[in-house]
Amino acid sequence: MVTGLSPQSAPTSASAVPSPAAPGSELDLQSFKEFLYQYNRLSQDCFMACVKDFTSKTVSSNEERCALNCLEKFLKMTQRVSTRFQEYQMIQTESANAMAQRGHL
Q1: Topology of domain 14-104, per CATH?
Q2: 46, exposed or middle or buried, with CB in 10 Å at 0-12, 13-18, 19+?
Q3: Closest residue by Cα to residue 16 from 34, 3, 4, 1
Q4: DSSP characters for 42-80?
Q5: Could you read off the pLDDT of 46-97 as tens digits, one per residue?
Q6: In 5-60, which residue ranges form alpha helices assigned H by DSSP?
Q7: Residues 6+ apart with CB under 8 A from 36
């Protein structure tokens, strides 16, 4: 059976689960909805790519390996996009600060 694909085992912060009385719960709810959307999309994409044989109740080793590779690729892609976005944001901030410095001179 494929492990590591449940929402309970996904890396999330405690603030990702909305609390009705918590301040900013609307933002937390939106974050949780986005998490569920991404989780469901990943599940569907990996399932469609990996599960080809419906003649058995059990998950084959090839299907499990494929699903784990699919998940790993998605996580690496997400990490890389996040890193690149942070780098871009730093460059934009430095550029804005440099322009502000020139404006005050």
Answers
A1: Helix Hairpins (1.10.287)
A2: buried
A3: 34
A4: HHHHHHHHH----S-SSPPHHHHHHHHHHHHHHHHHHHH
A5: 999 999 999 999 999 999 999 999 999 999 999 999 999 999 999 999 999 9
A6: 25-50
A7: 7
